[in-house]
Amino acid sequence: MPDKLQQLIDTFQMFDPADRTSMLLSYADQFKEVPASIATRPFPKSHQIPQCESDAYAWAQRHRDGTLKLYFAVENPSGISAKALAAILDKTLSGLPASEIATINADIVEKLFRQNISMGKGIGLMSMVQAVQALAKAASQDKS
Amino acid sequence: MATPIEQRGYAHPEALVSTDWVEQHRNDPNVRLVESNEDTLLYSSGHVPGAVHVDWTSDLNDQLRRDYITREGFEALMSRIGATKDTTVVFYGDKNNWWACYAFWVFQLFGHTNAKVMDGGRVKWLKENRALSRDVPSYAKTQYKAPERHDLPHRAYRDDVFAHLKKQGQLVDVRSPEEYAGTRMHMPDYPNEGALRGGHIPGAKSIPWAKAINPDDGTFKPADELKKLYCEDNKLSPSKETVAYCRIGERSSHTWFALKYLLGFENVRNYDGSWTEWGNMVNVPIEK
Predict the structure, then answer these.
(1) Is B94 at the interface with chain A, CB within 8 A?
(2) Interface-testing mutation among B36, B40, B41, with chain A (most A C-beta atoms within 10 A)
(3) What are B28-56's pLDDT values in tens digits?
(4) CA Rg, chain A, in Å?
(5) Element of type H or E holding B271
(6) Within 13 Å, how many C-alpha atoms sit on residue B170's CB side?
(7) Given an 8 Å threshold on Cβ–Cβ distance, is A116 in contact with B57?
(8) What b/e string do you get for B238-258 counting C-beta neighbours within 10 Å, with b at 16 or more?
(9) pTM of this prediction?
């Protein structure tokens, strides 16, 4: 697990439910949509996160040093949880080597969201983590 | 712009209120606004000022069994939101009021008939650029004495559906056409929440829930359009027993509300076990 993400999870574990909700909202507020230099609407289906009811998309831009910058789009304006998770993934993983990002596990969703999650939404958010993991794996195998 | 509710020809127009009505009554101490959403973070991100949050999973469902809260749980919930028997509870939420109708429906299991739904829900409120607040209001706790939960008039269990099938009763499948046809086992872009078989309950009419609303603002269509949809095109009779179902009972709560309150169907129940129960049961009839 990348250090920054682990530290964030550790912080979340210390919070009570109200504080955890505030933290998640704070991340949702910091969400930044993918810039036009990376992708424009209509976003390609190949970047759509499957099973995510918030109509979310993910991209990974590989830098020459092998690190990645993650980008997301969340088309559902009510997709607050998806925006929160996207912002968390960007802030804790962007700038890390692809091979390190590829080590993340979908169980972080339960650790971060706890009571703020229903079964269906949990699967969708885990799918977002898996999409990032897949992008990172593909980038780490790309030697170009 | 939607026709005023009182001019739409509904059987029980008092069950539906406009965003204007909510704006005018949101400080009324006899009115309690309740937001119920799919995304549990959404309320905290901003809600109608003065509204309380009722979460479908943690507030309305039993935390162990697949069932709803008991009388004691409902009394505690009503006490928490500061509601008495005389409080008019107005529900609204995301997803075109799926969860608002679901919460409204659960409240009917406890006989809190002094309840309404805000037409168009959260999306209409936002489209009209009305105020949102992140302040969580606090209301004085009440002593609410609820009756025991009475499921029979509003809720169908699987055995009721079997009996209904034998009588060739009216069944409405409100899921997407793909779910009805069994080509997918969940809503488009939604995760599969665990049905092992696809298809529909034999004899069910496919009437997706969204046909009851205007897609631009989520408001309910007027009664004549709803009558055409349900009674003419799909030959449902308002005087016959009707059971609606979907995946877990949320979308069918929306249709249940439309049939019961807007069209005046006399006996309509929501089968909340829905496809996640039926599609997993052993040796039950399924059509594709």
Answers:
(1) yes
(2) B41
(3) 999 999 999 988 899 999 999 999 999 99
(4) 14
(5) strand B268-271
(6) 22
(7) no
(8) beebbbbbbbbbbbbbbbbbb
(9) 0.90
